[in-house]
Give the backbone structure.
Amino acid sequence: MVTNSAKIKSVIGVEGLVGVIGSGAMGAGIAQIAATAGHDVIVYDTNKEALGRAKNNLENALKKLVEKQKLTEQTAQAILKRTQYANELNQFKNCALIIEAIIENLEVKQQLFSSLETIVVKDCILASNTSSLSITSIASACKHAERVIGIHFFNPAPVMPLVEIIPAISTDNKITEVSKKLINSWGKITVLTKDTPGFIVNRVARSFYGESIRIYEEGIADFATIDWALKTFGGFKMGPFELMDFIGNDVNYKVTESVWAQFFHEPRFKPSLTQKRLFEAKWFGRKSGKGYYNYSEGAMQPKPTENEELGKTIFYRVISMLINEAIDSLYLQLASKEDLDLAMTKGVNYPKGLLKWADELGLQNVLNVLENLYNTYAEDRYRPCILLKTKAAKRELFY
Ligand SMILES: NC(=O)c1ccc[n+]([C@@H]2O[C@H](COP(=O)([O-])OP(=O)(O)OC[C@H]3O[C@@H](n4cnc5c(N)ncnc54)[C@H](O)[C@@H]3O)[C@@H](O)[C@H]2O)c1
């Protein structure tokens, strides 16, 4: 009989449990995925209340799945039985893989990884779910940096299909290969990306927010009109301002600031004062009741100006910036064109991959929009990527 801890051996070559450290929003979801995939899972959090909450949330999530007939009662019980909660890190000594989802702080993560190395077997893979920190710098705290990798889930982890796999410059190729294989076996869609700020999704998506805010700041249109334009002409499920309010202007602002700073203040990623003020006022969005929009009961929602010409101008400006970022990411070998497109459709629900979209809109048309912006503003943020220029000149397509 294959035991639960032997199950992982068939994929990664090491027998043991899946450990999850940090049982907040992400850790709890990751533990649920691993236990559902049939692994024995052990979860730890320095905050005992958070650990208790994760246990309750797992029970409730499984109960709902049983009610919706997506899971049998027997399977739900088996998942609960496979999930244990630890009082101390020493209990992680039998892990084959540990995924860390603790506070987003480099020193705290480095300390954790360095102490884990004194506990675990030498083949245990150590993974971080960080959204914005360098995997290489986390790995640098370890004696065996070659076993450290980024495995980046999206929120809510049990629902979102995408996982970014991020080897540090020190990661062993074999570790990358088996990590990808394992996460695929959990039913997720994985994309492989270089260890650069924001990885794929949190880098390429920046202009969806940044350029939209810029259009608002210039007085070209209000929030409601910009949201309407991107939903109507782009087919996005949510407009940028609705989405920022949904993500939280605290989280979204911090990610922007971090990506911008880590890219040595690249103007394409520059944060906006508009969003900074919302952050300072604690107008975080839905969760605080107010953001770009007012979420209090009975609040009047602003109506968009449904002018087709204006709407199309807004859409073309934002989509051209997004496409330019995707092309630049391809040019700088961040990921393959297929993975770049998968990341945006599966990680943030874009209606199409951006490179496929570029082909459809016409590379020369996208280039014209960017060159026009670049000539008008004389700002570096609008410079078209060299790969876009050469491909447009040769009339080539991405697919
Ligand atoms: N929330 C998201 O949308 C999202 C998406 C992808 C990745 N991430 C990343 O996942 C990680 C966790 O994010 P989250 O949203 O789940 O945070 P969270 O605040 O919900 O949970 C973090 C948990 O870690 C615990 N913790 C803190 N320090 C610890 C330590 N030293 N040892 C053990 N436990 C510790 C906290 O008590 C808390 O319960 C972060 O690195 C974040 O960047 C977050």
Summary: The mean pLDDT is 96. DSSP finds 19 helices and eight strands in the chain. The longest helix spans residues 308-331.
